[in-house]
Amino acid sequence: MWTLFIMMVALSAIMSAALPGKFLRLLNFQSMFSQFPEFGLLSIAMMVAMISGGIDLSVVAITNLTGVVSALILTRMIPAGMAGPQAFIIMALAVVTAIVISGLCGLLNGVVISKFGVPPILATLGTQGLFLGIAIAITEGHGISTFPEKFLFIGSGMVGGIPMPFIIFVGVAVLIFLFMNKTKLGLSIYMVGSNPTVSRFAGIDNDNVLIKTYVVTGLLAGLSSVVMISRVNSMRPGYGAAYLLQAILVVILGGVDPYGGFGSVLGVTMGIIILQVLQSGFNILSFSPFFKKFIWGMMLLVVMVINFFVAKYQQRAKKLGTQPVESVPSPGE
Amino acid sequence: MKLFDAVKTYDYRSLLKHNETFVFFVLLGFSIVVTIINPSFLSIENLFDLAKSSAGMAILAIGVFIVLLSGGIDVSFTAVAISAQYIAVKTLIILGIDNLALAFLISCSVGIALGSINAFLISIFRLPTLITTLGTLSVFHGGLLEFVGSTPFYSGQIPDCFKSFGLAQVFTLVREDGTKFGLSLYVLIILGIVVVTWIILRYTMLGRGIYAIGGNREAAERAGFNITRIQFFIYCYVGFLAGIMAIMHLAMIRYATPTLSIVGTELSVIAAVVLGGARITGGSGSILGTLLGVALIVALQKNLVLMGLSSYWHQFLVGLIIIVGVSITYYQSLRRSQQRVVFTEEL
C-alpha cells in the first residue's frame, strides 16, 4: 500500500517538475478532479466484481445503455421553457431511471453467473454485447446531446471550487469502503472471492452474494453514467470504451487480485489518481490517442509482471525465514 | 444390410447431449425461415458467397478454439490480425513488390511474433489470460497505429497480387445468362486448416497436451507435459492463423484501414466458438461445433435485414445468443454436478 502512495506522490512531483507552470495549476487540478470520478466509479465497480472472484466486462456497456436512456428522458421529456420544479422532477426521473436500469443490468449479470453457472468472463462478455446492442439499436448509432443546464451541475458544477463529480466520488468511495469492510455482505464478497467452496460450506449463500455483488457493480456503473453525461453534455453508444482497460489497469495497480479475495478501496483510489495524473500529463504533452492506448496496455502488463516478481520474492523470503509469516501474501505490496 | 443395421442401432439419444446438435438444428431452422422469406438464400451461388465471407472468421475461430481448449482465452487475436495485415501491405507497397507469397510470409511472421509475446507473458509469468490479452490487445493495436502508421490504403494502392488472390476460384460455374460464379479458393484454405488442426488435436501428443492443460493444468504438468512449450505453440498458432486470415481479409475487401476493421469483432468470433460448444474452462469442444457456430453467426449477420431488423441490432443479437446459448450449456453441467454432489467451483 505504501509503495502505491509513494508512487502517487512521486509521479505528481515528476509531472510538476517536468511540466512547469502547466501541471501545478488550479485549473489543471480542477479539470483532473472533474474528469476522473466517472472513471473512478467504474473502477470501483470493477473492484467489487473482481474481489468476488469474477470480472465485469459489461460495466462500460451498462454505462452506455443507462446514459442513452437517461439522455432520452432529458431531451424528449423537457420541452424548452418548462417550469423549474417540473423540469427538476424529470431530471430526478432521469437519474432514478439510470439507477434502476443499471441495477437491472447488474441483476441480469448476477443471475446468469450464479444461477446458470456461467463463468463471469463469458457472461459479462455476452451481456456487454447485449447492453451495448440495445443502446446502439435505440440510438441507431447517433449521439444525444444538449441537456438542461441545471442537470449539468452534477458533472460540471462546483461547490466552493471543488468539482461536483469529485464530491460524488468521495462520497461513494467512502460508502463502498464501509460496505466492503463493515457490512456482512461486504465481508461475504471477500470470502466468496477468496474460496467459493469454503464459503459455501461456511454457510454463505454464494448465489445470493454474487447476485448482489453484480447488482452493486451495475449500480455504480449507472451512477458513473449520470456523472458522465452531465459532464460531457451528450451520450453516444461506444463512449468510454477505453475506460474498460483503464479500469482493469487501475484495479490491478491498486492491489486487487484478479483471482479474487483481495483488494481495497484505498488502493484502487490511489491507482485512479496515479492514472489521472498520467492521463493529464499525456494530454499536456499532446500524446496521440494511439500512443496512450499503447501505454495503458504496457502499464497493465508491466504491473502484472511486477506483481509476479513481488509475490515470488515474498514466497522465497517466507521459505528462508527472513520474513515473518504473514497471514496472506498481498499482491502489489 | 450392414449400413441399415448401423443406422437402426445408432445411439441417437447421445446426439442430444452434444451442443453441436442444438446449434445444427438452430442453424437449420434459421435457414428454413430465411429461405421462406427469400428463396434465393439456399441457392448454390449464395452458399458459395457465404462460404467465402465466413472463411476469415472461421480461421480466427479455430485459433480461438484452440486457446479455449487449453483453458485460456485470447482477445488480442484481432489486433494481431490487423497488425499482420497492415505491416504486410505497407511493406509490399514501400518495397514495390507484388508477391503474394511474400505477403503471406510477412503476415504470418508478424502473427507468430506477436503470438509469442502472448505466450511468453502467459507461460513464464503465469499471468491470467484474459487480462493479459486485454493488455496486449491495446499494446498491439496502439503500437501499430502509433509506430507503424494509421493511414489507410485504398483499392488503388493495394498490389494486384491481393486482388487476384481474392478472386481466385476452385472451380467456376456458368449461369444461364453467361455470367460466371464459383467456389472461392478460401474454402480450400479453411478446409486445409481444419484438417491440419484436426490432425494435430487428435493424433499428436501436442494435441493431447492441449486438452490436458485445459482439463487440469496441474495434473498435466505432473503427467509430464511441457506446459510452456505447449502454450507457446497455442498462442503462436493463433497468431499464425491470424496472419493467414489477415491476407485473406485484405484480398476480399481490398482496402486496409488499421483503425477500423477487424478489431472490434472479437465478441462475434468468441460467440461463435462458445456457441459451438467449447467450454471457457477448457478441455472440451470440437472443430465441427466451432464451424457450425461461425456459420450461425455469419448467417445472422447476412440476413438481419431480410428479417426486417436493421443492422443496428446485430450487436444485441450476438450478445443475446451468447447469453442464451451459454446459459443453457452451463446450466446443464451445473445441474449435473449438483446431482452428483460435486462441489468444486471454478469461476
Task: Map the helices and strands.
The complex is a heterodimer of chains A (333) and B (347).
Chain A: H1 2-18, H2 26-51, H3 59-76, H4 84-114, H5 120-139, E1 144-145, H6 153-156, E2 158-159, E3 162-163, H7 164-182, H8 184-194, H9 196-201, H10 206-232, E4 234-235, H11 241-253, H12 265-284, H13 289-320
Chain B: H1 2-9, H2 12-17, H3 19-37, H4 44-69, H5 77-95, H6 100-124, H7 129-148, H8 160-167, E1 169-174, E2 180-184, H9 185-203, H10 205-215, H11 217-222, H12 227-253, H13 266-275, H14 287-303, H15 314-339
Antiparallel strand pairs in B: 1-2
Description:
- The complex is a heterodimer of chains A (333) and B (347).
- Chain A is mainly alpha-helical.
- Chain A has a domain of 221 residues.
- Chain A has a two-stranded antiparallel sheet with strand order 1-4. A two-stranded antiparallel sheet of chain A has the order 2-3.
- In chain A, a hairpin with a 2-residue loop joins strand 2 and strand 3.
- In chain A, helix 4 packs antiparallel against helix 5, helix 4 packs antiparallel against helix 10 and helix 8 packs across helix 10.
- Chain A starts with a helix and ends in a 13-residue tail after the last helix.
- Chain B is mainly alpha-helical and 347 residues long.
- Chain B is built from 15 helices and 2 strands.
- A two-stranded antiparallel ribbon of chain B has the order 1-2.
- In chain B, strand 1 and strand 2 form a beta hairpin.
- The longest helix of chain B has 27 residues.
- The relative contact order of chain B is 0.17.
List keywords for this structure.
heterodimer; A: 333 residues; mainly alpha; two-stranded antiparallel sheet; two-stranded antiparallel ribbon; 4 strands; B: 347 residues; ABC transporter involved in vitamin B12 uptake, BtuC; 15 helices; 2 strands; globular
Give a brief rundown of this model:
The complex is a heterodimer of chains A (333) and B (347). Chain A has 333 residues and is mainly α.
